[in-house]
From TrEMBL:
Organism encoding this protein: Trematosphaeria pertusa
Keywords: Membrane, Transmembrane, Transmembrane helix
Keyword Plastid: no
PANTHER family: INTEGRAL MEMBRANE PROTEIN
UniProt region (Disordered), positions on chain: 282-318
Superkingdom, natural source: Eukaryota
InterPro entries associated with the record: Elsinochrome_Biosynth-Asso
Biased composition, class Polar residues, residue ranges: 302-311
The name this protein goes by in its record: Uncharacterized protein
Transmembrane portions of the chain: 28-50, 94-118, 130-151, 179-200, 212-235
Length: 318
């Protein structure tokens, strides 16, 4: 973990301890692999939907499992970063921020591909809405800390929480792109949350829905690739640590049970998939997409809405 300065923002330590819990090879790989698999599964499901060839129930279950795992771990690691802001240096906090972007990309891609599944089950829909809100809130808070640290040119060996206490050291000449990118991420998080909320709760299925899925998936893939490249470049586990951090302690590229565990958890969705294939667990096909494609010209708007959207029984009405 990072050196505890006792919330003293005037003393700059010479070194910073490594923190494999948030920047270790296993932790980074688990986020990267989950994001890659989720984007791939989302692309396949959306493509099959365009061709109206199959509702892909097995792929949907696998994607939902990866997405649930990623959004929970994403919220967890952001909570750890904010809870340790008085001891965690900007280097580790920045890696957590990048991992949160991977989590967001995974969650949004899943929403694009499985939106009809969520609409059909009000419990899943509102659970997804809750996790989306918590993830967006934490991501925006983390982005504000990152933005402040760049604008104030925070000493890299001071805790990230010191951004509100230390004096401005002057914005470096090459910080313009970082500031613009961070502001764009903050605005993007808010805009995406608003649009995804509308997308999740919209009772109609407009004909341009497939176009939104394709364009959105392309943008999320670019976001996932960008965050992956960046986290690989700046992490001790795979790349080069930024100058001035001076990490000491066990290397974050070293493997241990704590680093292997996140990767082992990736096997769980595969086990669930195997149970479905063997018939031990039933997964109904997504008739929503198939019926919508075959009968959209035969059903009235009211009939189609009733088939694709289950209102919240606590306050929703058909």
């Amino acid at each position: 973990m990072s050196i505890d300065t006792g919330s003293n923002c005037t003393f700059v330590p010479d070194t910073v301890y490594t923190d494999a819990g948030v920047a270790g090879a296993g932790t980074l790989l688990s986020f990267i692999i989950t994001n890659f698999l989720s984007l791939l599964l989302s692309a396949v499901i959306i493509l099959l939907g365009l061709r109206k060839s199959t509702s892909a129930p097995l792929l949907r279950k696998l994607l939902l499992s990866f997405s649930d795992q990623q959004i929970i771990t994403g919220i967890g690691i952001q909570s750890i970063g904010l809870a340790k802001m008085k001891t965690m240096v900007p280097y580790h906090f920045f890696i957590i921020w990048l991992l949160s972007l991977l989590s967001t990309a995974t969650n949004m891609a899943t929403l694009l591909a499985l939106v009809n599944d969520f609409k059909r089950d009000w419990v899943l829909r509102w659970l997804r809405q809750f996790f989306m809100f918590i993830n967006t809130l934490l991501s925006v808070l983390s982005s504000i800390f990152i933005l402040q640290s760049v604008m104030k040119n925070l000493e890299p060996r001071l805790p990230i929480g010191c951004v509100w206490e230390v004096a401005d050291r002057g914005t470096p000449s090459n910080a313009g792109l970082s500031i613009a990118g961070t502001i764009a991420v903050i605005a993007g998080n808010v805009i995406v949350f608003i649009l995804s909320t509308w997308y999740l709760h919209n009772r109609t299925n407009p004909r341009w829905l497939k176009s939104v899925q394709v364009v959105g998936l392309i943008m999320l893939t670019a976001m996932g690739i960008g965050a992956t490249v960046r986290v690989v470049m700046v992490s001790q586990a795979f790349g080069t640590v930024p100058q001035g951090v001076n990490l000491v302690g066990p290397s974050e590229s070293s493997w241990s049970y704590g680093q292997l565990l996140p990767l082992l958890l990736l096997v769980l969705p595969g086990i669930s998939m195997l149970e479905v294939v063997r018939g031990e667990t039933r997964t109904p096909p997504s008739k929503v997409d198939d019926e919508q494609g075959d009968q959209v010209g035969l059903l009235s708007d009211t009939e189609l809405q009733g088939m694709t959207y289950q209102p919240n029984p606590l306050w929703g009405k058909r």
